[in-house]
Amino acid sequence: MVGTHAKKKRLSVYLEPQLWKALKTQAARRNMSDSLLAEAAISAYLNPADARSDGRLATDAALQRLDRRQARIERDLSISIETLALFIRLWFTSMPGLPEGVAAAARAQGAERYDRFVEMLGRRLAGDKRFQADLERGQDATSERGGAPP
User: Fold this and answer.
1) Domain boundaries in the chain?
2) Which backbone phi and psi does 56 adopt, to 5 degrees?
3) Of 36, 93, 133, 141, which is the most exposed, with the fewest CB atoms less than 10 Å away?
């Protein structure tokens, strides 16, 4: 970009509405002026080698990658939550009710099972045992044997 000792020249351009909106959005996201963003984009277009060495542009690109990665993580988490909620709803609707004579014993047994479940979940989260790791280990073993999982 132009050094600090030279006075910058003014340029007026006309942009398509969607390009104007994208410029405004990116400038706001990066907390910079429209003019500074346009200058950086023109400079990057005219001098691609300089743009790669510009630390701020590299940082902006890294932040954009992180932003996209975070969006994917949020999407995947939302899918996981919805999957679990749907499974629980379907499971509850398909399970028959218990007669009153055994309901109290079933509640006590359910509370005991729930406590064991929470304890096991805590151990798995504290260690490196995760479902994804179990799946990957199973896939590795399958590919080594050259067949279907056991």
Assistant:
1) 17-53, 103-144
2) -65, -40
3) 93
Find how far residue 143's CA is from the centre of its chain.
Answer: 29
pTM listed for this prediction = 0.42
Per-residue pLDDT at 114 exceeds 60: yes
Percent of the chain with pLDDT over 90: 25
| Concatenated DSSP letters of the chain | ---TTSPPPP------HHHHHHHHHHHHHHT--HHHHHHHHHHHHH-HHHHHH-HHHHHHHHHHHHHHHHHHHHHHHHHHHHHHHHHHHHHHHHSPPPPHHHHHHHHHHHHHHHHHHHHHHHHHHHSS--HHHHHHHHHHHHHHHTS---
Residue 37 · residue 23 · CB < 8 Å: yes
Tell me the pLDDT tens digit for each residue of 16-68: 999 999 999 988 888 888 888 888 888 877 877 665 556 676 777 788 889 99
